[in-house]
Structure prediction request, 215 residues.
Amino acid sequence: MNETLSRIVDSGVVAVLRGVPADQLIGIAEALREGGVTAVEITADTPGVADLIEDVSGSFDDDEVVIGTGTVLDSETARTTLMAGAEFVVSPSLHEDVIETCNRYGAVSAPGVMTPTEAVRGYEAGADFVKVFPAKTVGPAHIGAMKGPLGQIPMMPTGGVGPDNAADFVEAGAFAVGAGGALVDYDAAERGEYEEITEAAREFTRIVEEARADG
Ligand SMILES: O=C(O)C(=O)C[C@H](O)[C@H](O)COP(=O)(O)O
Prediction:
């Protein structure tokens, strides 16, 4: 398995940082790592995303945290952020040019999909896994039903995933989950209470690990 993908598997949870303030980024990434979340995605709509990725990549050893770009809608954004140090690229939608660009530079790519047809199309185009988005509206049963005929395609539900439903998604066949709002409390970071983020990360990874052991 590709090393970046195996590190995402190890983390079990990909933290989605949307609009993270530059002065909180390293503290949040460190707090997440402390709690066992070692895969972090900074969304491309975050101001200065390439600089943030460069900053966070330079602040950790290669094996400590794996950094990706989220909400990538075009190959230009994929390339720019890969050059800044991103190791994986996630989209809310399916863009074959983004997958092609990632493969050109040896990076992991994950298109957003909702249907079996989109999942197969993304995988055939060379994606490493698919992000089932938005996950909450379809729920864990949708992942289970898709994994029936498409067991070979690794699926990561994202969008509305929290401690209340993460175990159900993993038991339905998800290899990892993505989470933003339910995992990263920017207000806590603003108050300097980074241990709250570590606690949330610890709880999330515990839930995923237990669900894997049960599944
Ligand atoms: O556009 C993307 O690449 C995304 O990742 C979409 C959402 O920001 C995530 O799905 C996080 O959603 P919440 O966990 O519900 O906060």
Notes: The longest helix spans residues 194-214. The mean pLDDT is 97. Residues 16, 18, 43, 70-71, 90, 92, 133, 158-161, 178-182 surround 2-keto 3 deoxy 6 phospho gluconate (CB under 6 Å). The two ends are 21 Å apart (CA to CA).
